[in-house]
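The following block was generated as part of the benchmark described in Methods. Ligand: adenosine monophosphate.
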Amino acid sequence: MQTRIVKISGDREKDDRIIEEAGRIIKKGGLVAVPTETVYGLAGDALNPGSSKKIYEAKGRPSDNPLIVHIARLKDLETIARDIPDTAYALAIAYWPGPLTMVLNKKDIVPKETTGGLDTVAVRFPENEIMQKVIISSGGFIAAPSANRSGRPSCTNASHCEEDLGGRIDMIIDGGESGIGLESTVLDLTAARPVILRHGYIDKAMVERVTGPVDIETTATEKPRAPGMKYRHYAPKGELTLVSGEAEKTARRILELAAGHAHNGGKTAVIFARENAALYEGAKDISLYDAGSLNDEDTIAHRLFSILRELDEEECRYIYSECFDTPRLGRAIMDRLSRAAEGRVISAD
Ligand code: AMP
Ligand code: MG
């Protein structure tokens, strides 16, 4: 299959034609990668079981890992969800459009192919204007998981999508870089107390401000409530290890480990906070990846998936990363990094 890549130019008429075409493709059961404010999504018709099957195939995604349904009008929530609690509306007023996904009981119109066999549906109202227009032009309900091959880092620009899905989908809309760079917060609202299933840009304190106390799902369970959390995810091809501890000790440990790899020809890389750059200066046999300043956690979040992909391009075999325990997004960032590291964490002490 030939994948058309089309660029949003800012020319209103041309852009509208692209969006209309994307809508036509999706209505006919095809797939289009679309920019959103979190990461790029792979869009198909959420109410068409055949489209959802195609999404799973194109991504190589296990079929029990449900898709998020995207809407672009608040009233459409009631078409796909039932028993909607007041908290959902309060959260929608506070954070929609935006990077918050709410899990609710589903109505029959949503096929089980879309929800990975579950009786619940995850719903998000994204902020990105291109995505909103594509949703409307394709009928109002788009299933859109992250537009990466399953297990790979999510895509924050169109060339990442092409790398992973070129030849497998109908079209990629290039709308520039995704601003946030981390996937949405997933919040389960089907029990008495809300539960965060996946950390994201909307953190626990932001949810609690609206809903009161919130629980956090532990990912250690074998049958997590967000089925996607049990799968290997975000992993670069090289072996990523997280190193925790005080900055100087961490750098010393990482440089020792890198020196140990130098003899066998494996390329080593380190991901660090800008504040610690000097600790790695002049180091031999190690590629340096500056994730951004600890005072600017938005940038660290924004750069994370790109860095994980660059490490593959550079064929880094051993990768070490500092831990980024920043106040607001630290949890979401470390959730992605620890899954990319498949649990490999060592202490610098
Ligand atoms: P992605 O499509 O890559 O953004 O991942 C979507 C995440 O939302 C996965 O971790 C899914 O398991 C989770 N999710 C989607 N729908 C549901 C649902 N109905 N119940 C619980 N988790 C869900
Ligand atoms: Mg994903």
